[in-house]
Write a structure and sequence with these properties.
The protein is α/β, with parallel strands linked by helices and 368 residues long. The protein folds into 2 domains: 189 residues, Rossmann fold (3-Layer(aba) Sandwich); 154 residues, 3-Layer(aba) Sandwich (Rossmann fold). Helix content is 48%, strand content 15%. The strands form 2 sheets. A 7-stranded parallel beta sheet has the order 3-2-1-4-5-6-7, with helices on both faces. Helix 1 packs across helix 2 and helix 10 runs parallel beside helix 16. The longest helix is centred in the first third of the chain and has 19 residues.
Amino acid sequence: MRPIIHLVVGARPNYIKANPVFQRLDELDKFDLVLVNTGQHYDHNMAAIFIDELGMKAPDINLGVGLGTHGSQTAKILAAYEEVLIEHSPDLVVVFGDVNSTIACSLAATKLQVPVAHVEAGLRSFDWSMPEEVNRVLTDRLATLLFATSPEAESNLNKEGIASAGIHFVGNTMIDSLVHCQGHFAKSTIRNDLGLVGYYALMTFHRPSNVDNEASLQQLVTAIIDVAERLPGIFPVHPRTRNKLENVGLLDSLQNNDKIFLIDPIGYIDFMHLQQHATIVLTDSGGIQEESTFFGVPCLTVRDNTERPITTTLGTNKLIGIDYRRIPQEVDLALAANSIEHTVPDLWDGKAANRISAIIDDYFNNIL
């Protein structure tokens, strides 16, 4: 009997991180691989489009959990996935990142004594007000195999009492997808489609700390409009951000500004093209901090902390906090700089999934 491995995806970044791992494990031809989609991101532009663009196989199992608060969504995923686990009896569950699907499926598996592998283990913001931090820490406590993207991740895990024997510094599978697809980015027509010529800022905001409070959101919108006076801004709007803007009457001020391109979420190829050619990126996303570092594009992260500090020490990322009045000033400083010194972190070479698949292969060789 070949070991059964479940790979769990649910949110947009999971697809980007999971696809290289699935491909490399599949090439070994030693495992029965099952792709499980929890349906945490239900919008086509937030998830399904990645299957088309990355050449990823369609999920074998769809849980279809959809919307919900953190608690209810996590509970729905846990209950639905538990039924799948009982039916399938996998030998390993591989989870990615720090979303609700990650912790819910890890918890369901652990309670049924199914080992868990966590890709992107050890990242820490040390901010327990972030739901993602809770998901990260608890998933790492449950995991048997912990795959880290950067050296400081192992130190974080060691400080939490997790032995180095289970920790593997493998690199970043998100960069694997970027390297694999890089040849396709130049084929994107998104800039021409938008009528973009020359410099522009790429903006993404979705975290509760930035968009859930009306006063904060008003200040953020004011800063975005101010930045657009310096250079055009492209703003692919996350569904929850659009809802927040609309609910507090701020959407029109962005839509009616001819220097701001307010667009729906776009596919991976188009977004990477925009990011690669941006003059500057403003974001509260974790993955974009990593991608902009690989591209060498200046990135301003509008957060008080980051779980990816290597992007600020080696990369192109600058953490500027959530004093939104600073944003235009920080943009000016970045634009005034002729160049930015940066180094792509070690093992962000497009081969992280090769290392992960080899470690999983060794794991089964040792237990079978």
